[in-house]
Design goal:
heterodimer, A: 285 residues, mainly alpha, B: 307 residues, MetI-like fold, globular
């Protein structure tokens, strides 16, 4: 490694630059586009010289879109609100259900525990439409179609396995001896769980929660199948918006920027946990 | 006195609950998921029925007909071919690129760490939104990529709207989103390898290519296998990118399993065929995921043993 020639250093530099350009360019380009009007977007050749405008964001936030044929109402802010509600509520429910279960799987090797854990994990890998298509009919019978309750329930399909498996790994890493010592001092399992296990696994639980939030936010197919316009999150809403607004490219770009900013910000904030979470704790890096 | 009885009562309750406790703790999570198992079995039943939403009166069991019809159905073979092609091409390219980038970033330095953090961003972008971003960039009218294509002599390069290049376009989006995933896993793998073999090789003046193929690659294999299987599982089921980009079109160019099943259900309202397609996809992913889980558990044990 120490004996790198100048030529090799140059080649490495060029390769890394290409990598950064390829992966960063789309985000930068869409970001720039969101501050432009159609007039500058449609220029040929494209140029990065323009006077930035906030009118795309203003149109999205006020919900009034000025088009040649008049004012169009857009519900994009509602989609953004739906995304926040669905993701936050789904992660909260998943933590409430998943953390105790993860503790049970980590501490008590009870009969069938591995089978149950595997069954839950296998949901992560099954084709979502296999469940979603019959579910459209069940949801109609149960009166759950196009309700937040129904959507949050089905979002557990993504959040719960994720939390269960990551948090279980963290509980397993905590030595059980500390808990035994606390128990022998006469404390109940619940106070042991609350005062010893939970704080020790805290960072892991937070990481799993953040990752589950990102996955819930980025989900597309669940709401596409089960929600109508007024309950749809940004992923589905943005696609509908593209069809509806047609050629308002600046606003489409602004809508995309607003939709991806929360997850990107979280990713930067929690980056050191993501590696482990993404691999379901497979690689301790 | 009161405190003594209190704690002994607590202890006796603990004795009863010790056996039940794990079940109590995991029951709520299970119940939520059982609600998901029911639709799964419903889908199995649908797949054995002649069932069209447009003709509900004609609904009846036709047993294996939906599956048998696939043998003579060019649409099915197209779906199978496109799905395997998509998964094969994306995972191969992502693996090569991801490995290359991981090797470039292997040494810990401020610049390398910064770049590896930046590369998380595409992975954290919703695939459906990533497809929309690329759709804006490949717009024939003003898209920057269409312009760049015209600069290198590809006038009227139509990206996703031409059957010839639609697959290329969605593969490109998939690579943009998911290469960082493989890169991150392999980078973590590379950095966790023991250093002694490399130091010994450097002392002996062993050529770099030999070190790579005989030391790095074999030691990295479990990580490569995990990353590949994980991506294969996702890629063969890809829906978001393709649906957001072209809705399976133009024509039937990109009707991979889930897209075809979705269109069958909602457009041609052929529930039976849609369910049968999904069951076949499920069988493929079930086999893959069993291999994946076994391999992953082995890797996890190893990582734990070394830690």
């Amino acid at each position: 490694m120490e004996t790198t020639s100048p030529v090799e250093r140059l080649l490495r530099g060029v390769a890394l630059t290409l990598v950064v350009v390829f992966f960063m360019f789309p985000i930068v380009w869409i970001f720039l586009m969101s501050f432009q009007t159609n007039e500058t977007i449609l220029r040929i050749p494209p140029s990065v010289v323009f006077s930035p405008t906030l009118e795309n964001y203003a149109a999205l936030i006020t919900g009034k879109l000025q088009t040649a044929s008049g004012t169009l109402d857009i519900a994009f802010m509602r989609n953004l609100g739906n995304s926040v509600l669905l993701s936050v509520a789904s992660v909260a429910v998943a933590l409430l259900l998943g953390v105790p279960a993860a503790y049970a799987f980590a501490r008590h090797k009870f009969k069938g525990s591995e089978d149950i854990a595997f069954t839950l994990l296998s949901f992560r890998f099954a084709p979502p439409l296999l469940v979603l298509l019959p579910l459209t009919q069940y949801f109609q019978w149960l009166g759950l179609s196009n309700t937040y309750f129904g959507l949050i329930w089905i979002y557990q399909l993504i959040c719960l396995p994720l939390i269960l498996w990551i948090v279980r790994g963290y509980f397993e890493d905590i030595s059980a001896d500390v808990e035994y010592a606390y128990r022998i001092a006469g404390h109940s399992w619940f106070s042991t769980f609350r005062k010893i296990a939970l704080p020790l696994a805290g960072p892991g639980i937070a990481a799993a929660g953040l990752l589950a939030f990102i996955f819930a936010w980025n989900n597309f197919v669940f709401a596409l199948v089960l929600a109508s316009a007024d309950k749809q999150p940004v992923t589905v809403g943005a696609l509908a918006f593209v069809t509806a607004s047609g050629i308002q490219y600046g606003q489409i770009a602004a809508a995309i920027v607003l939709s991806i900013t929360p997850t990107l910000a979280l990713a930067l904030y929690a980056q050191r946990y993501l590696v482990e979470g993404l691999s379901l704790g497979a690689v301790k890096g | 006195m009161a405190s003594v009885t209190h704690s002994s009562a607590r202890r006796s309750r603990f004795r009863i609950s010790k056996r039940v406790l794990p079940y109590v703790l995991s029951l709520p999570a299970l119940l939520v998921c059982i609600g998901i198992l029911i639709p799964f079995f419903t889908a199995v039943i649908y797949s054995f029925q002649r069932y069209r939403l447009s003709q509900p009166w004609a609904r009846q069991f036709n047993w294996g007909d939906n599956y048998l019809n696939f043998f003579t159905d060019p649409g099915f073979w197209n779906t199978l071919k496109i799905s395997l092609l998509y998964a094969g091409v994306t995972v191969t390219l992502e693996l090569l690129l991801g490995l290359g980038i991981a090797l470039l970033l292997q040494r810990r330095s401020t610049v390398n760490n910064f770049i590896s953090i930046m590369l998380l961003l595409p992975l954290m972008t919703a695939p459906a939104l990533a497809a929309l971003m690329w759709k804006l960039m490949t717009n024939p009218g003003f898209g920057i990529l269409s312009y760049l294509a015209s600069l290198i002599g590809l006038e009227n390069f139509r990206w996703a709207s031409s059957p010839d290049t639609a697959l290329l376009t969605v593969v490109l989006v998939d690579i943009w989103v998911y290469t960082p995933f493989i890169m991150i896993l392999l980078l973590a793998g590379l950095r966790s390898l023991p250093t002694q073999p490399f130091e010994a090789a450097a002392l002996d003046g062993v050529p770099r290519s030999f070190v790579f193929f005989r030391i790095t690659l074999p030691m990295l294999t479990p990580y490569i296998l995990t990353a590949t299987l994980f991506r294969l599982l996702d890629s063969i089921q890809q829906f978001d990118i393709i649906y957001a980009m072209t809705q399976g079109g133009p024509g039937d160019t990109l009707t991979v399993f889930q897209v075809e099943a979705y269109l069958n259900f909602f457009q041609s309202t052929n529930v039976g065929r849609s369910a049968a397609l999904l069951i076949i996809l499920w069988a493929i992913t079930y086999i893959l995921s069993n291999i994946f889980i076994k391999n992953w558990l082995r890797l996890r044990e190893r990582a734990r043993g070394e830690a």
